[in-house]
Amino acid sequence: MSSSEKDESSLSLETHPRSHIPDWKWKGTLAVLVLTTLINGRLGLYIIPPRAIPNHRSDEVFVLGYDVSNVANIQPALYKAFGNITLLPWISLSFSLAVFAVLSFSRKILYCVDMKWIYIASLVIFMAGAAVAGAAPNLPTVIVGRVIMGVGGAVVYQSNLTFVAVFATPDETPRLFGLLSAIWAVGLVIGGPIGSALASNKQTTWRWAFYMNLPWVGLSLAGAIICLPRKYLGPEIPLISRLMAIDPIGIAFNMAAPVLFALALEFSGPVWDWGSGASIATWVVFGVVMVGWIIQQYWCIGTTSEQRAIPLHLLSRVDLLPLWIASGCAGASYAITLYYTPLFFAFARGHSAMEQTVRLLPFVLVFIAVVILVGASLPVFGRYNLIYIVAGITTITGAGTMAGTLSPLVSESQVLGLEALIGVGLGCSFQHGVGVSNVINKTPRDRVDSAVMFNMAQMGGIAIALAIAGSIFQNVGYNLLTDAIGDNGYSEKELREALAGVSSAVWQSGKPEVLSRGVEAVATVIGREFYLVVAGGAICLVCGLVMRWERLDYGRNKSKDVEA
């Protein structure tokens, strides 16, 4: 029997996937996965488009200050230190963009070297990026540090999914993926208050929002060295041969396409006119790269069907494709809701960073509760298509109402209720696709490849949604702001600074009419962002309807027998 056949045999549903691993090591492994997921969550949506926060109460309108969602005051502080308003949005986008850009590489590298050592190396890369960003002498260096963190974080996150896919039993899989999803959401919430406290402290400054990652990642590194089980997923061939088979052309296309897409979206409008040569050229190059990527992967140019960067053979699996599409829509909807709901409270209510975090809790807590509940219930009732149908209906209802009613005059209780409803929908669809596909697939390679496709769909959905939403916010928001207060003599730079959340003459004018109309314009564009969430919910509903009406066997009895 070949080594690959032995691996698949050892991971079949009839045997326990970690019979050779001591219980304490598995528990330590789970602790490492939870901690790194928490860190990734805190950084995945770590710094979002900065937000000005005029305090709007009754007939009195005045400026309280400025805030950034997950690391309050980071971007205004960076702008004050380094300037360069055009690069400021890339601080938020660079991490998620880097994660998406290296996902195919993270899949291929897991087949080249033992998973444990890849994990350890990725944590070291992550720490290096945090150190670079924290010590940065200018804004481009901060962005470079964030990109390095994204590269390390992508491999860590993919490895987390792979460790669960390889070593968890079918009964444990949905619960563990639900737990990791909940932990990721917790990380998204706690990043704001912690970063705000560090950035606003004169002794720590914004640099410690990056430095604080070092001890926690160091703790994860120690745990990984001690506890992670060793596992090599690839063929028994020399290391050089493995590295030669990673499909460098496909990986290069994967890196270039999302970067060009983000460049075209983010710079068209704020930096380049939409009809300018630079904007058109960037869009054309992006289109050529996308077509080239598709052709190269489909016809396996410079690679083979087994070694290509993207496991396209799985796209023919009609039982898996709707899961990935729905997961990508859930990721996109989650990112937009998490970014722009606090932004509404900042502009329309003048709430501080902590007050925004508190008002986001209905969304996050409901999301976490539903993720855990669905993860625990799926092995019992097994009909996964129903959760996606429920997810689509509730997301459409909540986001559609939010998009249609969001204004400075809407009651906070209504917004809190609607964000909780969106949390129900996204909690049903966010993380469960990889657990379901892990049960559907019977071989370790298909499970790992499915986890990669899920990760690409989810992180791609987040990155693409943030790029599109950011372009809408900057372009539509600027037009609405110009129509509302442009006749007051404000320059384009001042209006874009107002949208960026740095010190702006708009919010410092002290004119109640200007501030009121400005807030109304920003609230309007935030409401329009939620139409993207409506679209995501509609696609999720369609995916749920076309999924197989089947009841999955999670092997609960078999796994219990093996454990006994």
UniProtKB/TrEMBL annotation:
Domain Major facilitator superfamily (MFS) profile: 53-564
Family matches, as InterPro entries: MFS, MFS_dom, MFS_trans_sf
Pfam families reported in the protein's UniProt record: MFS_1 (PF07690)
Keywords from the UniProt entry: Membrane, Transmembrane, Transmembrane helix, Transport
Molecular function GO labels: transmembrane transporter activity
Gene3D superfamilies with a match to the protein in the record: MFS general substrate transporter like domains
Name used for this protein in its record: Major facilitator superfamily (MFS) profile domain-containing protein
Organism: Penicillium thymicola
